[in-house]
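Side project, low priority. Logging it here so it doesn't get lost.
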Amino acid sequence: MAGGGGGGGGGGGGAAPAPKQDELQPHPVKDQLPNISYCITSPPPWPEAILLGFQHYLVMLGTTVIIPTVLVPQMGGGNDEKARVIQTLLFVAGLNTLLQTLFGTRLPAVIGGSYTFVVPTISIILAGRYNDIVDPHEKFKRIMRGTQGALIVASTLQIIIGFSGLWRNVTRYLSPLSAAPLVALAGFGLYEFGFPGVAKCIEIGLPQLIFLIVFSQYIPHVIRSEKPVFDRFAVIFSVAIVWLYAYLLTVGGAYKNAAPKTQSHCRVDRSGLVSAAPWIRIPYPFQWGAPTFDAGEAFAMMAASFVALVESTGAFIAVSRYASATQVPPSILSRGIGWQGVGILLDGLFGTANGSSVSVENAGLLALTRVGSRRVVQISAGFMIFFSILGKFGAIFASIPAPIVAALYCLFFAYVGTFYFTKIHMLFLINLELQFMEFYWDVRTGAVGLSYLQFCNLNSFRTKFILGFSIFMGLSVPQYFNEYTSVAGYGPVHTHARWFNDIINVPFSSEAFVAGVVAYVLDNTLHRHDNAIRKDRGRHFWDKFRAFKTDPRSDEFYSLPFKLNKFFPSV
């Protein structure tokens, strides 16, 4: 039938020419992502690098401001305490980013506040031992000292697992198939912080999202220039325009008679940060007093620390891809986790009310700008430290309305995630004989998590089962935990021991954690010793990255500075 069809087409004279042989070949597998303008070791010129570093600073401000804005009022603090906590979180984020880029994975990864630690912090806030404190300021300080103690204890988990090499032994069994859901939901699992945040002030958030897409995707194809400008600095251009627009709406009285909640989301003068922030202040350890320790609170925070460990592993893999580096060797991942534990220790010592992990939104910014330079991220760390000390100036940028930040999340989280679903419902058919699940997805965009599937055999039913089931469960299980919590006010696991509740509820509320664990377990237990299965899961492509010295490029991307590899060799 194929031959007859070809003959009929040839006789018609108007048929399309037969495709060339090279056009029928699949896209080749790439160890390093192509079309990156500046990779991890090739910095752009200094003026461009400084602007790109400032852009990274603007992007990480969102999480830095949102988390204290949520937590500090519940702790009993006011605008003064909120401004000081934001300064401290920003200062420690700068230190942690420098440590990670110099001595950790050495990837261009921004280390900032993490939403994973919010739940155990709220559990500390609601602990009965603080109920009798009447003075709000005293209550704030006591709760802060309690979170400091919990973070200090929780940091030891990542420090021990990372520096002892335990995490190296775990990640050696990662394959492209099990890494794809982990990396995917490290970004896409944060979808609730995207458009729901934009919709809180749609007249500001939606224009920001539109301008960001126009500047980054459309204008570069309309206005041709020798150097990329609009796409590379799309964040600065779009935020400046929409921020000015929001300011004009505020001073023009557009929200004079609006509801208080609308005013808090839309106005540019309701954060209270500029008036409360001091002109100059250097955060220092134990500024809130000596930390206090409680075993239950420490165990709950350790559960969050383990979830952050898994999520950051996926984020490190995503950053390495967008920096056009090779796959991160397991020993380097373990070293990075150890230094992230040091970062959580600094959070506890300084008192940030929150732990640290890799900033997913900044990983997405690497993709948008196509600049994966380590120097750019180190410059952004300099901006974090500088503006945390000069409080008034930093507070000006920190007062950007939250819907503008949420619009940035919509694009950056999608870059890190696998798929962008425009429909919530998924129709799936289950074939019990094949143990295979098919999904009808409205797929809108793919990103770095999906790119790891190039190493896998997507025609394998085993691959389809593991990929589909892990992503589905990674979305479905946390959705159940979150819906249950929103209705009942507490998680599905509800005992008299709040710390035990958090140990169970926190991990299963993380999309990346659930998807990563399910994929890892299935991929390493389902017929993995079969030679054909080994190729299906893409393991043979990553064999050369299992040890540091088996690929010569590892030394270029991940070796320590100042010849420290002689004293701290990677294996």
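Brief comment: The first helix runs from residue 2 to 12.
Revisit when time allows.
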